[in-house]
Amino acid sequence: MRDLNGEEVNDAAELYNLLEQIPSLNDEDDQRKCRFVCGNKFSSKLCYEKLIGGEETNFEERLIWKKTIPSKVSIHFWACFHNSIPTLDILSHRGISIVNRCWMCKETSEDINHLFLHCRYAKVIWGYFIESIGVSWVHGRTLQESMEAWRLSGGSHFRRKIWDLLPYAIVWALWLERNARAFNSKENSSMDIILQMG
Fold first, then answer.
1. Which of 1, 72, 119, 182 has the fewest CB atoms in 10 Å of its CB?
2. 182 and 103 in a common domain
3. Which residues of the chain are under the pLDDT cut of 70?
4. Residue 23 belongs to what domain range?
5. Is the dihedral of CA 51, 56, 61, 65 positive or negative?
6. What is the distance in angstroms between the CA of the first residue and the CA of the last residue of the chain?
7. What's this model's pTM, rounded to 2 decimal places?
8. Sign of the dihedral defined by the CA atoms of residues 86, 92, 93, 95, in that order
9. Under a CB-based contact definition with an 8 Å cutoff, are residues 166 and 98 in contact?
10. Is 177 domain-assigned?
């Protein structure tokens, strides 16, 4: 058995102190008690919050993992925010020899922010839906910045629900169109995509 180093000695002492606090065994029935729970209302959510330090969930978690969004779309957004969907920009950055040109507009290199926000093809689709709701909107520099600012105050509950779901639908439709162009040599116009989404 090896000797403990300085940090391990401290950890062992802390563990020993915790073990000393355990009450002695007796003949009484066992009871469930949890220090961070009021009464006997233990839940996985409370346990998770305690494990992460009682902090509220971060923006990315609230934004991506929603009940109303299909899992595959949430995973796609998670990958976008972590710069890991296989756009041509990322593939060439990983050392794959490839011509980096946007599949949609064919004018500039393809990266996440261009493909989903700044490509003229994407702008037409965003513009159509934003104008139909009657809102003036300017995109952020990045997809994540745009999503952070994507709020609508006022209007009916139905209008706000549509507004909340709109970016997920548009980004997913653009990704499907991009892949159809890349792998199936099929091209739809922006109006075709709008009609398919409607």
1. 1
2. yes
3. 1, 21-24, 31-40, 42, 53-60, 152-155
4. 6-52
5. positive
6. 69
7. 0.68
8. positive
9. no
10. yes
Helices 190-197, 157-184: crossing angle, 10 deg rounding: 130
Q: How many CB atoms lie within 10 A of CB 116?
A: 26
Nearest to 120 by CA among 133, 104, 131, 141: 104
Task: Please check whether residues 11 and 70 belong to one and the same domain.
Answer: no
Distances (CA, A) of 170 to 97, 126, 165: 29, 7, 9
Query: Which residue, chain included where needed, has tokens 């934004």?
Result: 63
Contacts of 126 (CB under 8 A, 6+ apart): 117, 137, 139, 170
pLDDT of residue 23: 65
Residue 110 tokens read as 């393809």
Pair 43, 66 in one domain: no
Question: pLDDT at position 126, please?
Answer: 94
For position 171, what pLDDT does the model report?
Answer: 96
Residue with the two structure tokens 């109006």: 191
pLDDT score recorded for residue 49: 73
Name the residue with tokens 């980004």.
171
73, 168 contact by CB (below 8 A): yes
Please tell me the predicted confidence (pLDDT) of residue 158. Answer: 81
Q: What does DSSP assign to residue 117?
A: I
Q: Which two tokens stand for residue 151?
A: 């709020």
* Amino acid present at 39: G
8 A C-beta contact, residue 196 and residue 180: no
Tokens of residue 170, six digits: 């548009």
Whether 30 and 102 share a structural domain: no
